[in-house]
């Protein structure tokens, strides 16, 4: 039985997935190959099955449920044999000591720690306002591009909530539920690289609003105090986004009004 099961949800991103898998290959990682397995859960209509089985035979391919990334991660977890589940996004690349670093952590921490949050760094310098990446170098975010959960605890809390059908808040929801059962450790030395990518929330605006509304209802964050806190977040993000707009000299500035309007709308959800 492996100590670690690395689970990679993917959906029609073959090239990014190939880079991710290449970084996890046994001849690249410093860890004993028997220490870990790699599972690709594929939600894409353009299947990566042939590529995975031909180019990365160390990885196991499984068909995803096509119900969003939360359900896709659960599908990968359902086939895992490891004591710990490590979730990495398909557009990330692992440092060559990632598995060994995680293994040392898992073998040394007490049972009261049931989850570990790894670091996420950029692959290059950000140059535009509309570039996005879940950079995490200080912890406290628990972003699903690099997290680990004990298999027993993952099963106990029911995995990811599949009601989150887009990549929005499903990891924060899990973080809240984990913190009710266990301590969560941030490990700066467990690192993946996440490229900056150009994106806008314009086409996903209503879906993002819906995800937040569900999250607030689920965690009973609908009081006046919660709305005041969201008002503070709006002011903070308005200032931060405006600063970045000028910092990058309005490159990609078309995304700015959507981003600011989103935080405004979230006050009233």
How would you explain this protein's 3D organization?
With 269 residues, this protein is an alpha/beta fold. The chain folds into 2 domains: 4-198, Spore Coat Polysaccharide Biosynthesis Protein SpsA, Chain A, CATH 3.90.550; 202-266. 39% of the residues lie in helices and 21% in strands. It has 9 helices and 10 strands. It has helices at residues 14-23, 49-55, 69-78, 98-108, 151-157, 170-179, 205-218, 224-247, 256-266, and strands at residues 4-10, 36-42, 59-63, 84-88, 93-94, 113-122, 131-132, 146-150, 183-194, 197-198. Strands 3-2-1-4-8-6-9-5 form an 8-stranded mixed beta sheet. It has a two-stranded antiparallel sheet with strand order 7-10. The longest helix has 24 residues, at 224-247.
Low-confidence stretches: none
Architecture per CATH nomenclature, i.e. the level-2 architecture of the largest domain = Alpha-Beta Complex
Number of helices: 9
Write down the overall mean pLDDT. 96
List keywords for this structure.
269 residues, alpha/beta, Spore Coat Polysaccharide Biosynthesis Protein SpsA, Chain A, 2 domains, two-stranded antiparallel ribbon
Topology of this structure?
Elements: E1 4-10, H1 14-23, E2 36-42, H2 49-55, E3 59-63, H3 69-78, E4 84-88, E5 93-94, H4 98-108, E6 113-122, E7 131-132, E8 146-150, H5 151-157, H6 170-179, E9 183-194, E10 197-198, H7 205-218, H8 224-247, H9 256-266
Parallel strand pairs: 1-2, 1-4, 2-3, 6-9
Antiparallel strand pairs: 4-8, 5-9, 6-8, 7-10
């Amino acid at each position: 039985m492996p100590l670690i099961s690395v689970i990679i949800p993917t959906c029609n991103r073959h090239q990014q997935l190939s880079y991710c898998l290449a970084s996890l290959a046994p001849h690249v990682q410093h860890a004993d190959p028997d220490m870990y397995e790699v599972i690709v859960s594929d939600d894409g209509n353009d299947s990566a099955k042939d590529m995975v089985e031909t180019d990365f035979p160390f990885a196991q391919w499984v068909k995803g449920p096509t119900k969003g990334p939360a359900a896709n991660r659960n599908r990968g977890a359902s086939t895992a044999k490891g004591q710990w589940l490590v979730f990495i996004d398909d557009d990330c690349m692992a440092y060559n000591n990632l598995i060994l670093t995680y293994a040392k952590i898992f073998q040394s921490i007490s049972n009261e720690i049931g989850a570990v949050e790894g670091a996420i760094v950029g692959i290059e310098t950000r140059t535009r306002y509309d570039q996005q990446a879940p950079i995490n170098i200080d912890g406290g975010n628990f972003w699903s591009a690099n997290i680990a959960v004990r298999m027993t605890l993952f099963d106990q809390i029911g995995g990811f909530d599949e009601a989150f059908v887009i990549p929005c808040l499903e990891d924060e929801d899990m973080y809240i539920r984990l913190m009710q059962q266990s301590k969560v450790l941030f490990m700066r030395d467990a690192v993946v690289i996440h490229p900056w990518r150009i994106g806008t929330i314009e086409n996903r605006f209503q879906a993002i609003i819906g995800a937040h509304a569900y999250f607030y209802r689920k965690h009973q964050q609908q009081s006046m105090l919660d709305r005041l806190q969201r008002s503070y977040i709006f002011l903070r993000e308005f200032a931060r986004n405006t600063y970045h707009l000028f910092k990058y000299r309005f490159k990609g500035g078309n995304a700015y009004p959507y981003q600011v309007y989103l935080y405004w709308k979230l006050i009233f959800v």
